[in-house]
Amino acid sequence: MSLSFVIIGGGPAGVSAATNAARLGAEVTLIERDVLGGAANLWDCIPSKAMIVTGGELNQIRSSAGMGLESMDPHVDIDALRSRISVMTAKLADSNRRLLESQNVNLVSGTGRLVDDHTVVATTASGEQTFSADAILVSTGSRPRIPDWCSPDGDRVLTTRDAYPPQSMPEHLIVVGSGVTGVEFVHMFSSFGSKVTLIVSRQQVLPTKDPEVAAALESDFLRRGVQLYKGARAVGLERTEASGVLLRCDDGRTAEGSHILLAIGSQPNSEGLGLAEAGVQMDGPWVKSLDHHLRSNIAHIYVAGDLSGKLPLASVASMQGRKIAEHVMGLHKVDHKHIDYEKAASAIFTEPEIADVGLAEADAFAEGRKVRVTKVPFGSQAKALINNDPRGFVKIISDPATGVVLGGSIVGRHAAELISVLALAVTNSLTVSDIAESLFVHPALSEALAEAAE
Ligand SMILES: Cc1cc2nc3c(=O)[nH]c(=O)nc-3n(C[C@H](O)[C@H](O)[C@H](O)COP(=O)(O)OP(=O)(O)OC[C@H]3O[C@@H](n4cnc5c(N)ncnc54)[C@H](O)[C@@H]3O)c2cc1C
């Protein structure tokens, strides 16, 4: 008889685990309470990038004079934008459904919870269904963290989930939080023409990123008139008659705007899942000490995606799902590599776009590690000039003795696509010569990678 695998949560982690385990022969049930593809599809990756791409098109059209075109003055149609996003989300949910159905995954629309370590109950519109499981995956994701000094109302006080797009386009948006999510929203709304103020708790936006990369973004924000409150923490909020909201910071400064958007991280969806009742050891809202295979203290109960507390990225969640499926089906005994989170590529969809992978230059120096750093600006590349966008650079960090590529950063147009070359190199210990010896296309931005690898 085939192994029964029950998954709670159909985001990137759950969908990937389900399709891979079913392909390998498991009898899979996937319980999802909302939309297949998860928050990634409905609230996070897809709508935010759709809005950013629309804003990017606006910026391109605004700079059309530099391309030999008459300049135009386009405006945003907020209803058309909203419907573009919902059509896209529905299409992606549908293609997930088709994929899962083609693999004979039993899809259950409902809310799942464990009743013991081998039993999952789904509460559905037509009542409760009980499933007995040899292995269980909990991949219920996360939601925006709300600070105690304000309550989002979906009107003027927004979380990221209220912003696709908001009811009215903000005249002046205050963004709290200057990590990846915060800066993407700054870029998005300033492209739409909103005035934006960004509250930066440290002295640098993107505090965990290479300072040179963060500086490139800061200078673009300043060029666009974004106001930066550096070294300020938001501590209080009032609604005002005049402008909408008034934000108070711990250093005494205040910011007035029409809307405020919170981008201060997320919290796990672990309530009501029956984890502790099933014997899973918890550490507050998180599952305690997952092993390399993402198993909890109960060996057949796995945790993946944002709930695992590893790297909160959809790409990582999907990979975790695949690895768990392989482990459940015993494939790890044959050819299994653990996920190396240090080698995950990530991108920030701003203008210029930012992407990095592996070792950062600043971290190498902080560790006193000898590295070779080569940097090529896009300004010297034919394709960047053709694109009328010479901003940014490619930076490759390699081992001076062996030439092995240890990491890299790319700032500039299509950085999120271009970083794949460096991700492949970092994951497979390729050398700078492997990149330099590859015949890339001309004219293409990837030529900067080949040059930096020489
Ligand atoms: C604004 C924003 C933009 C982002 N952009 C990117 C990006 O560009 N690229 C990237 O890689 N990452 C991005 N991320 C991160 C990414 O969205 C998450 O890392 C990813 O969604 C995590 O996937 P997951 O499978 O853990 O969970 P989710 O995508 O959160 O899915 C979990 C699913 O579980 C369901 N669920 C919860 N509880 C239950 C229950 N009891 N029963 C049944 N179903 C349940 C939920 O309905 C949901 O569908 C972004 C995040 C944010 C906030």
**Contiguous uncertain segments of 5+ residues:** none
* Distance between the amino and carboxyl termini: 56 Å
Overall average pLDDT: 95
Provide the spatial order of strands within the biggest beta sheet: 5-4-3-2-1-6-19
What percent strand? Answer: 25-35%
Number of helices: 13
CATH class (first level) name of the largest domain: Alpha Beta
Q: In CATH, what is the homologous superfamily of the largest domain?
A: FAD/NAD(P)-binding domain
CATH architecture of the largest domain: 3-Layer(bba) Sandwich
Q: Tell me the Rg in angstroms.
A: 23 Å
Q: How would a crystallographer describe the biggest sheet?
A: 7 strands, mixed
How much helix, percentage-wise, in residues?
25-40%
- So what's the oligomer here? single chain
| DSSP, total strands | 24
Q: State the shape.
A: globular
Bound molecules: flavin-adenine dinucleotide
Structural class by secondary-structure content: alpha/beta
CATH fold description of the largest domain = FAD/NAD(P)-binding domain
